[in-house]
Amino acid sequence: MPVLNLTEPTFDFNTIHPSSKLLLAGDSIDAYTDYHTNVGDMSCQEIINVSKEFSKINFVPNGFDVSSDTYAESEILLNVLRHQIDVSGFNFKNPETFLTRDVYTRPGPGPVLWVFGCSHSHGVGLSANEKTFGQIVADTINRPLMQITKPGSSLNWSFRHLINADIRVNDWVVWQITTAERVSIYNGVNTTEVQLGHTNDRSLLDVNTDDQIFFNHISMLNTGIQYLHAIKSQFLFLDITYMLDNSSQFYKYILEYSKRPEYCYKLNHYKDLGTDGQHAGPLSHNAIALSLLSRIQYNNE
Asked: Would you kindly state where each structural domain of the chain is located, as residue ranges?
């Protein structure tokens, strides 16, 4: 079978391979002739369609500006082609993942307490010498704490970090639920956390209807729970973000959460407010920790 050489559109490939023939869309292919083409004379889809007629694709770097759109398009094409045909002449880089993966080093070989959540778990409103509920629980059960929290973050954010964490069988996980109208948005470069109730972006509001938000939120939560069950981790998921709201607005969420035995609803555990007047104070963190500890003790009996 012949070889198809992928070249730069303005480069005269016949200067280095006189017998090669330029391949255009619709041309018949001679089994004894090598061909060359490029993303200017043929579309990427047309090249993919005819690639099965060749023994391999050979990339010819001559004339390419690696910072050009033509080079980038050719690179994407080669990445697609290499999964169905032998590709030579191109040095494939390690692919970049669409979402960056944060790597958290375990503090030792023993069991760990993991806490995932937003500002409520992060300790916003606490003074420097006051402990979060996560730290209180970790100190009490004598385990190191891995607190993966971010103020303003969504369930999307904590879900991504949870499934990338090195959670093991004997670890305990506390996954704090955040309000459903917080979502992660990809802007073409990175992800940002958006609170839909505070945005004027009509494109987001038109797509994210109340029912769609509810569906996405519960689907992600259920997927995370199934994952934690699959890796045989002991876990609780904690609902503390609705304490200062009218809980009747969130009845359908609470009803769905309560179907799971691991659900902890902390409506009555706000004993005080922190320094910002919005988040839990030290007495509230202590009350939440005591409730979590009672559930952990119950599960271990």
From this structure: 3-88, 113-300
In this structure, what are the phi and psi dihedrals at residue 87, rounded to the nearest 5 degrees? -120, 130
* pTM reported for the whole predicted model: 0.71
- What CATH number is given for 113-300 in this structure? 3.40.50.1110
* pLDDT tens digit sequence for 3-39: 999 999 999 999 999 999 999 999 999 999 999 999 9
Q: Closest Cα to residue 241, out of 194, 288, 204, 191? A: 288
- Number of CB atoms found within 10 A of residue 253's CB: 19
Nearest to 225 by CA among 235, 217, 215, 214: 235
Q: How does pLDDT run across 223-246, given as a tens digit for each residue? A: 999 999 999 999 999 887 654 444
Query: Of 114, 119, 148, whose CA–CA distance to 280 is shortest?
Result: 119
DSSP string covering 119-173: HHHHTTT--TTSPPHHHHHHHHTT--EEEEE-TT--HHHHHHHHHHS---TT-EE
Can you tell me whether residue 45 is helix, strand or coil?
A: helix
Q: Which residues pair with 58 in a beta bridge?
A: 5, 88
Cα(153)–Cα(151) distance, integer angstroms: 6
Q: Could you tell me what percentage of the chain is helix, strand and coil, using 3-state DSSP and rounding each to the nearest 5? A: 35, 20, 45
Handedness of CA 37, 38, 40, 44 (dihedral sign): positive
CATH code of the region 3-88: 3.40.50
